[in-house]
Amino acid sequence: MPRVRPGSVVPIVAILAVLVVLLAIRQPDFLSPPSLMSFLGRSAPIILLAAGQYFVVVSGEFDLSVGSLVTAQVVVAARLIDSEPSRTWPVVVLLLAFGAIVGLVNGIVTTRLGVPSFITTLGMFLILVGAVYLWSDGAPKGGLSEAFRRFGRRAFEDVPGLGRVPYALLVLLAAAGLAVLLTRSDFGRTLVAVGGNPRTAELSGVRVWRAKTIAFVLSGLAAALAAILLGGYSGVSFQAGAGLEFGAITAVVLGGVALGGGRGSVSGAMLGALTLETLFALMNFYGVSGALKSTVQGAIILLAVAVSSMRSSSR
Amino acid sequence: MSGVLTLPARRASSGVFLALALTLAIGWLVVTVDGGQLFSLPTTVSLLHVAAGLGLVAVGQTLVIIGGSLDLSVAYVVSLSTLVAAETMNGDDGALVPAIGLALAVSVAIGLVNGLLVTKARINAFIATVGVGLLLKGYLDNGYDGPAGKTAPALVQGLGYQRVGPVPVSFLLLLAVAAAAWFALARTRFGHHLIAVGGDPEVARLSGVRNHRVLVTAHMLCSLCAGVAGIYLASRLGSGAPRVGTEGLYDLESIAAVVLGGTALAGGRGGVAGTVGGVLLLASIDAIFNQLEVDAFFKQVIRGLIIIAAVAIYARRARRKAAA
Fold first, then answer.
1. How many CA atoms lie within 13 A of B239 on its CB side?
2. What is the DSSP letter of A156?
3. What is the C-alpha separation between B81 and B116, in angstroms, rounded?
4. Which domains, and CATH codes, for chain B?
5. Of A226, A178, A217, A241, nearest in space to A97 by CA
6. B173, B228 in Cβ contact below 8 A?
7. CA separation for the pair B18, A101 (Å, rounded)
8. What's the gap in Å between the CA of A211 and the closest CA on chain B?
9. Taking a contact as any Cβ pair under 8 Å apart, which residues of chain B between 157 and 196 contact chain A?
10. Chain B partners of A309 at a C-beta cutoff of 8 Å?
11. For this UniProt entry, which segments traverse the membrane (chain B) (predicted)?
């Protein structure tokens, strides 16, 4: 086996290529530009969440609150907009602020109070789900405006060569570009150092708590973006974000990011999410029950982590 | 050596019992002012039933957490166990013993897989048990839309609803399981080894403890306890329920109970008595909120806050101790 640099994106690109070939054999239409474009648009939310989760995981923490945050955001948006188009932009800004604040609280409780992040974010999960049900009396109220929904479901039509380009894809590309730039900045490098060895980072003058807190804020912001796209695409329900946290973590692990921190790239994480979505599409085309999604996801997590822990132990 | 190791746990568990007494006192006062009765027979019985289900899971969770691991698959093991038990019994008292045996065997096997993934495949316990949980979730989602099977009437009457005075048989079962776990931790070689592995795996290994074997055993016992909880729930519900474990939040709540009881999440410190206190505390809060007719969703918010606050308090105490 050729030596692959740890955290490299080569393995995930290879897996993705194999899956795409399998898909193309079964469903040649899949690779036609319009269907490919809408597939990428549909995958945008989970890819965004994976990018957000990358920052948290590479710093050595977990964010398990993102699924419930997406649900909360969608329900809040529907109730506040209440089908009134003029409220769209203020609500979008509010959602981003909401995501950032939840991330800030997660970060501060984890770093300053010393609560392990999986307890903090699971607690946040309970709080968000409970609060959103409480606030809406058990059933989602209001409705999203068409102006809000266009981010998730509309597209630029008649683009030469591509057919239609979903707005979601453009949002994704912009966010992905920012995320990659961020990982190349001083902050991105600091974050990897923090995850790799917090003690060393601390001693070399890094404010570990601040770096980790910013990572949680980024994850919250990514969840807000994902919620805006998902709400637009699939509408309002209490199930909007269910299970997305494990989807994002699976994607991150699949993309070669080491749990416990210090290794991996944001592009790997996003490719991991794309691979996961491709795999689900493949299962769908082969008539595998959707209920088995979580089994497949569980198997992938176990396999990916086992392989990477074997490899790092044999070094 | 074991005395030194269990001392801090004893101190922490007295904390949770103090909190429990305070909660009950304040709860009694508030409920009485509100015109209700906290210690009426039905309320007490239902409190103890809630405690029995959660407690069985939490006692098992205590063992893995003391060993420095944890188990997030318990909620699915609980659901699976209700189904295996109820489907095998199929309403027939004659099938009681094989059904219980099968449900427990399946549970232990899942614990074995968890343990091997954590020790041999060296997968972070959190990820390993979430992964196994997802595998089970897929199986349950794919195979079941709703309740299935029928619990044997003898089990429903015996474990499900039989009482000794105000105390349900199921709560006595919890006390028995907790006593067994206490004995295993405090009086057996396995227990001492488990505490040592959780405290410092490297030191334990160098002093001749077979870390892997000890941890795998702890995982099997944890799953076994979840399996017992499943059988109890099947006896209450009269059938197998594919979502009962996740809807009861047994994974989170069991960890919360363990942490409230003063067991360190990092392992090596804690005990079963504290966990039982933590379980009773959570069940009491639940009962008080029910009496006050507090909104179910508000209860969940409070629960999230309690879990975070409890861990923060213990983390703070541990840090101060480390600094001293």
1. 9
2. E
3. 21
4. 14-20+36-323 (1.10.3470)
5. A217
6. yes
7. 35
8. 20
9. none
10. 121-123
11. 12-33, 45-66, 73-89, 95-116, 123-140, 167-185, 214-234, 297-315
Total residue length of chain A: 315
Q: Which tokens is A155 given?
A: 């597209």
Do B216 and B224 form a contact (C-beta atoms < 8 A)? no
Coil, helix or strand at residue B163: strand
Average pLDDT of chain B, as a whole number: 90
Strand partners, B280: none
CB of B198 closer than 8 Å to CB of B265: no
Residues forming a β-bridge with B163: B168
Whose tokens are 């992964």? That residue is B131
- How far apart CA A76 and CA B203 sit, in angstroms, is 51
Q: Do residues B34 and B41 touch, judged by C-beta distance below 8 A? A: no
Helix (H) or strand (E) holding A159: strand A155-159
Q: What is the pLDDT of residues A168-204, one digit of tens each?
A: 999 999 999 999 999 999 999 999 999 998 889 989 8
d(CA A169, CA A177): 12
Sequence-ordered alpha helix ranges (H) in A113-241: 117-135, 146-153, 167-184, 186-196, 198-203, 208-234
- Residue A84: which residues within 8 A CB-CB, separation 6 or more? A145
Cβ <8 Å between A123 and B312: no
Asked if B45 and B172 count as a contact pair (C-beta separation under 8 A), the reply is no
Do A227 and A240 form a contact (C-beta atoms < 8 A)? yes
* Cα of A251 to nearest chain B Cα, Å: 13
